[in-house]
Design a protein that fits this description.
Radius of gyration: 17 Å
Distance between the termini: 28 Å
Structural class: mainly alpha
Oligomer: single chain
Strand order of the largest sheet: 1-2
Length: 76
């Protein structure tokens, strides 16, 4: 999956790598949040927001994928 171009050089990640990037982002966000907030209600809201952001990130990255062989193939 093409993520970006840096100096004209394409940066590509496969689905597993994209998943790892999102997991690292979520882990770091939750860790930083735990350092600042400790009550359960706030943490639940942070977790909910994080999950929504993670899904949105994945969907955005998925839309950036220009070539998707599964969408162009039909079974007869």
């Amino acid at each position: 999956m093409l993520i970006a171009k840096i100096g004209g050089v394409p940066v590509e990640l496969d689905d597993e790598q994209v998943s790892k990037v999102i997991k690292i982002f979520v882990k770091e966000l939750v860790s930083a949040s735990l350092d600042m907030y400790s009550d359960e209600e706030t943490m639940n809201k942070i977790l909910e927001t994080t999950m929504l952001l993670s899904q949105k990130m994945y969907e955005t990255i998925e839309k950036m994928d220009v070539v998707d062989d599964t969408k162009s193939t039909t079974l007869s």
